[in-house]
Amino acid sequence: MTDTAARPDLKEPALKEIFDRARIEAIAGHLADLSPAFDRARFLEAALRDLDDLALMARLGQVSGAIHAALDLPVERALDVLRDLAPRMGSGFATLILPDWVARFASDDTDRALDALAFFTRFGSSEFGIRPFIRRDPAHVLGVMTGWTADASEHVRRLASEGARPRLPWSFRLEAVVADPALTWPILDRLKTDPAIYVRRSVANHLNDVSKDHPDWLLDRLAGWDRDRPHIAWIIRHGLRSRIKAGDARALALVGADRPAELRVEAAAITPARIRPGDRITLAVDLVSTAAVPQRLVIDYAIGYVRPTGISRKVFKLRTVDLGPGERLQLSRSQVIRDFSTRRHHPGHHAVELLVNGAVLAVTGFDLGS
C-alpha cells in the first residue's frame, strides 16, 4: 500500500470520487443486466450531468435520482431490481444510493419502505434514508425500529439506534426526538448489552446526542443501568463523554470518578513553548497519587484557542486510569497545530489546562506565531 503521508506529492482522492464516472458506469451495467426496463443512456446522461461540480452528497442524490428516471417500473418492482443490485455493489458508502432512493421515491408505502431499508442497511447503512420516515410518523416508525433491536443482523440492530439519533451528523435533526428523548429510550435500553461493538458504539453516540439537550434526564436513567456489566459500563463511559469533558459531577460519578483527585503534579508542560502553524506540540504530565486508597482518574486537557472575538476552549481526552496509593503516572500526548475546515488558528498565547476529574490541576501553554 502506498504511504501517502510519506509522499506529500500524493493526495488521497476526494470523498466525492466515491461516485466517479467508473462507479456510475458500473452501476449502469449492473442495472442493464438486471432489468430490460432500465434505460442505460438516460441514466448516464442524468447521473453524469455536471458531475465535476458536485460534492459527495449531491452526487449521491443525483445518482439515485437518475436511477428513478431511468428505471420505468412500479415501486414494488423497482425495489426488487434494487434488492438484486445491492449485493453486486458490495458494501460501502456507494450503496447509500439505495436507501436514498427509498426515502425519495418509495415513501407512499411506509412498511414496504422500512422493510427495504432494513435490507439495504446490511450493505452500507440506511441511517439517512430512514430519517424522513421518522420525521413524518415517529410513533409508528420508531415502533418498528424497536422491533429491529431483536434482529439477527447487527446491521439492522445498529440501524435501530443510529437512524433514530436526534443529532446524526450529515443529516437533519429529528426535532421530535430532540424534544422528547423518551421516544427512542426503548431502543437504547434493549441494545445496552448488545454483543456487537458496532451496535454498542451507535448506542453510545445516541446517548451523547441526548446528553446535549437533556443531561439530567439521561443521567437519571443511566443511574439505573447495571454498571458492573462491562458492555454497559463501556456504553455509559462513551455516551457521557461530552458531559465528562464538561466536568459534570454526576457523569463523572457514573464512570467511577466520584471524588476530587488527590494528586501531586510533579510536571505539566508543553514543548516547544513557541511554534508556528503546522508544528507539533507535546504535553508531558507527571502525577503522583497522594490518596490513601485507589482512585479512578479521568484525565483530560483543554486548549484555549485564540479567536478574533476571544478564547474558544476545547477539551481533549487523555486517559482514564485507576491509580493506587503513592503510584506515579507519566503521560504524554502530541498533536499538530494546523488549520481545519472547522477550526482556524490565530497567533497568540494558547493556555493548556490539565483536567482531572473535572478540576483544573495545572496550567501550561504555548505561543503560536503567524
TrEMBL record:
SUPFAM superfamilies: ARM repeat. InterPro entries: ARM-type_fold. This is DNA alkylation repair protein. It comes from Tistrella mobilis. The lineage of its organism: Bacteria, Pseudomonadati, Pseudomonadota, Alphaproteobacteria, Geminicoccales.
